[in-house]
Design brief:
about 475 residues, single chain, 15 helices, alpha/beta, D-Maltodextrin-Binding Protein, domain 2
């Protein structure tokens, strides 16, 4: 076989291997889920269910089949998930499950605020007096089996309120109307207060504000409520109760529910829990990875403010992570291992310390030299000032000492030449100071020149009186040889 034929054969085989590899890679990348995923997102009237509907429609276009059904709420959804009636669910975070629960976390999502809405005539009383003013009033905590009911009950208990009983009627009266009934009800048929946990904007809150003028009450004790988890460390949270370490302070933006009614008129502080995407542990890991891969490209995470991304998987998990979610998280970690990063950080920290110390040492040395050079220039200025003082003393004397003036003028010229020469050679520092020095030299020189010229006029008058030449008088007073230009 000729050489070019061998090369052509090898090229053909390489192309075949590449095509086969691309085929299987594409097949795995686009492989649809092995089965339809049964999903719930709580009450059909809630915004959570609507988000799940939009998510399911988007997923269908990507080959991910989701069969969505409604339930009474998050607590019921978790029970049905444990029983295997659903594969995945969007539930309110913070609800405790049993230690051997098959519920596994896929991903945390955004925080859903707890809303407390009261009738307009009750608003000022509760705002000023606190939640204790709800005693004796009818309060809707949400549907039985919902996460809202669990959280609202805990919040009222935190505020010192309990449901009324036949033995003690001082508490609040529980109202169990469904949200769908509240939306359609007339004002006289509504309770005095309503709780709801919802992604913004809450449909029930929107209806109550727009139709009946309900007002939102701030719940600004979220941090204090969550701190109670510290005193409960080491204790198991009762099944179905709220695990307070998973409650967060959050807020509702101004005008979320009515621009005309200014509701709320300012940012309203409240508390909330994180929306979670969870699954039964028996859901295949590949299905969960494919679901996550789509989740972080879907509109579900884009509508949140701020938008959500895969870094959410690094948050502390409320339930054990699903093996598929953990695999997806590891797959998206940086290539450099954590140990290598730790080592690199230590090396960089040491290098930064050494470099920082060297930098400050060099700066100190440079600064020290600069100060020394500046102080040298300052000494030159002191010498000029001394010459100026001597010149002023001569000026104030009874008779001008021409010899001393000429000596001082020569000394000043030599001083100026020496300082300028050293500055040009970099042995003196400070542009501003050298300018000041030269200005001081010029002023002193001008002063002495004026005095010398004045004395020259006196010499000319004296020479005229003595009928001698001015040069002879000048020579006598200056103790110099006669200049060539002097007559």
């Amino acid at each position: 076989m000729r050489r070019y034929q061998k090369d052509l054969l090898l090229l053909t085989l390489a192309a075949c291997v590449l095509v086969v590899g691309l085929f299987f890679w594409n097949r795995n990348a686009r492989r649809p889920l092995a089965r339809t995923l049964r999903m719930t997102a709580g009450d059909a009237t809630g915004l959570r269910h609507r988000l799940a509907q939009a998510f399911a429609r988007e997923a269908e276009a990507q080959g991910i089949r989701i069969d969505l059904s409604a339930t009474e709420g998050s607590e019921v959804a978790l029970e049905k998930l444990e029983a295997g009636e659903f594969d995945i669910a969007m539930v309110q975070g913070g609800i405790a499950t049993s230690a051997n629960s098959p519920v596994r976390q896929i991903s945390p999502l955004h925080i859903e605020p707890l809303h407390l809405l009261v009738r307009p005539e009750l608003y000022a009383t509760v705002l000023e007096g606190g939640l204790s003013k709800l005693a004796g009033h009818k309060i809707n905590l949400g549907a039985k089996g919902s996460g809202t009911a669990v959280l609202a009950h805990e919040v009222l208990h935190f505020a010192g309120l309990s449901p009324s009983t036949s033995e003690d009627a001082s508490g609040y009266v529980t109202n169990s109307q469904a949200y769908s009934d509240l939306i359609d009800a007339q004002l006289q048929d509504l309770p005095e207060a309503v709780f709801t946990v919802s992604t913004l904007p809450s449909p029930i809150a929107d209806a109550l504000v727009e139709k009946h003028g309900f007002r939102l009450i701030p719940l600004a004790f979220g941090d204090a409520f969550a701190i109670e988890a510290t005193s409960e460390l080491g204790k198991s949270v009762p099944l179905g109760a709220i695990d307070k370490q998973h409650v967060f302070t959050t807020s509702i933006p101004p005008f979320t529910y009515s621009l005309n009614r200014n509701e709320p008129s300012t940012t309203l502080t409240t508390l909330g829990t994180r929306l979670l995407l969870v699954a039964n542990k028996d859901v295949p890991g590949e299905s969960v990875k494919q679901l996550l891969d789509f989740l972080f490209r879907s509109n579900l995470v884009k509508v949140a403010r701020p938008a959500l991304d895969a870094s959410l998987l690094d948050l502390p998990s409320e339930y054990p992570m699903h093996v598929g979610a953990e695999s997806f998280r590891q797959r998206n970690k940086p290539i450099i291992a954590g140990d290598a990063i730790d080592y690199l950080e230590k090396v960089l920290a040491i290098a930064a310390t050494v470099a920082g110390g060297t930098f400050f040492l060099v700066q100190w040395y440079i600064g020290s030299n600069r100060k020394r050079r500046e102080s040298s220039l300052a000494r030159y200025m002191e010498r000029v000032i001394a010459i100026e003082r001597e010149s002023m003393r001569i000026e104030l004397a009874a008779q001008l000492d021409l010899a001393s003036l000429i000596r001082l003028q020569r000394e000043l010229a030599e001083l100026k030449a020496e300082a300028v020469t050293r500055f040009a050679a970099g042995k003196l520092e400070g542009v501003g100071m050298i300018n000041g020095f030269l200005g001081l030299v010029n002023d002193t020189r001008d002063q002495m020149t004026r005095l010398i010229l004045h004395q020259r006029e006196n010499i000319e008058l004296l020479a005229a009186q003595q009928h001698t030449k001015p040069g002879e008088v000048w020579l006598e007073q200056s103790h110099h040889s006669l200049p060539d230009t002097m007559d």
